[in-house]
Amino acid sequence: MRRLSRVLLSTCLATGVLVCTAATGRASFDMVCDPALTLVQPVMTGCVSSAMLSPGGDTRMTMALLLGDRFAPDAPHIPSSTPFFSWSAMPDLLHPPGPQASAGGAAEEPWSPPPDVQCVQAQSGQKAFEQAVKADATLAEPERAALLALRGTVFATCPDYQPAALDEALKGVALSPAGRVFAAYIRAADAFYAADYPKAVQMFAALSGAPQGWVKETARYMQARAMLAEARMLAVDDYGDLTPPEDPAKRQALDKAAQDGLAGLTAYLKDYPAGLYAASAKGLYRWGYRLGQNQAALQAEYLAMLKRPPAERGVPMRDFIQELDNRLVMAPEELPLSDPILWATAVLSAQRDDGDPAFWPSVAGLHADQQALHDYLAASQAFYIDHKPEQVLALIPDMGPAGDGSALTFSRQMLRAMAVQALNKPEEGETWRALLAMTKDPARRTLVELGLALYEQRHGDVRRVFAADSPIGGWMVRETLLTRTADAALLLQQAGSAQAPAHEREVALFTLLYKELTRGAPGDFVRHLALIPTDAAKGSVFALLSPERPPLKVFTEGTTASDYPCPSLQQTASRLAASPADISASLCLADFVRLNGFDDFVLDQPVDGDQLGSGPSLFIGAAYARQAVYQKVLATPTATADERAYALLRAVRCYAPSGINSCGGAEVPPSQRKTWFSELKKSYPKSRWAQGLTYYW
Q: Is 582 exposed, middle or buried (0-12, 13-18, 19+ CB in 10 A)?
């Protein structure tokens, strides 16, 4: 992350410039969402956005929340049932979209267009052309059919576009005056999509006075677009980056094309203020400003757009936020911090662990009139950078308004509660319960529930989360505690609870069965197999904490060993219940774990830090490790030759093929693996397991 230039900030503030810019890039990546379940999120992972304004949140989500506060009726709907999520999880209707660009094409940024943008626009334009041709009553049916067929043929070769021989295609077709106008439009569009922009500009200009209404308006709009497209060709290098040419003549041509394009847009909007392409034309202004290196105009346009309601912005909210975020990353100097939303977004991202701790002191005075926002950002600085939670309580002395208010109000309430938590104050539990009682929005509730659950975990009261009157209902919080912390009694209780959701019951049962099987309670495992529903799911065991049903059928229909004589899993567990030292049954259980994907299983992995689920497990017994089973067999004098040989094979293969232990337990050095390999070869040379093993790892 590029750090903000202190010199730049000092200069801006000293000179009294209101529109000051940040030189800080703020990456916003989307990735598989596996967040750390802790409220303190000082690092942006792409996966810890929430309903709260925080340093670790995606900058796009920060802007969405603050824009929602500015235009309250259009506050973002966050359909999340988990405390944290990624930006990619947000639906396209994060905000109600504004007017879409019409058939002439969307207001995409020309300096970084998708590879097939021209083809997308060509297809969109074809629909509008067809509607116009069909609506023109002066056209005879044969020429209407010929024009429609020609328009479809011209662009059929996208993305490997080749200009069509239009004159040849129209031979023998009698065209009326309106038909000739439509044919001329096709020729102009043909030049545009063939990237012959100077020719396209001339041809669209010739149609700007056409008697056919649709052609006239579209030609006016497309003439401006062609000018900007020509500017793009002059400004973008081979890698798609905006790099103005050094050659004076080319630079002059670029400036002229950009200025002509902007003038064309202005002329179009003057004559067609509510025209077919008005929304797209307004969006195209940002093309022209950027291509023409007019940073002042670009900043003014962004400021104006930020103050318009979403429906008047001319671009869907999600797309607008993405464009702003692109500028934050690629060209931060183009965004003005004179808008509180951009200012707050920059401040919060600078408070990340990899941010610039001096940023807030440099810009704290920019928006002194935004008292609530200013105090929140100062409190966030105290919490994340200065590590002084007591200052948070001084800046946010009370919970504030009750009920679901703005994102800023909720964020202030959350940060205050987090400071109470950090100071380990006796009123913490009541603070979380009071905040939960006044919070109705689902995405916000899950975050508050996480805070209360963390409190209960630290105070050893996990069972309170599952009490009949518990206010905690979020599935991720509840199921994390079940899989990580709950004892056998609580798991059994939730597995059979009629009040618990079906998914929670199955997660509780899956966890109970796995831990009973691998932590020394095989008899209980056998008894509780009867609780598996008849319609239980099959599938992978890797996605236990997910909306998918846990694959309970693995315990009744899972794979058993093919190269070692093992009965069903139920029979293996019954033998272990009768005789825990049964070596053959122990090896069969290890094979069940190996063959059904339980190696390195999530339920056997500790949770780091102060996350939910990081407290001590209340389930009796240690995490399972196959390597420990093999080592125990090898240390047992009564083990048979087959049992010992198979244990040697499996102990060696724990390190195949990477040389890294995949069976759990402490890593052993290659010298130990060599000893196991040598013993198998020398002591049991006729064993099929010795004959099948050719080296060690």
A: middle
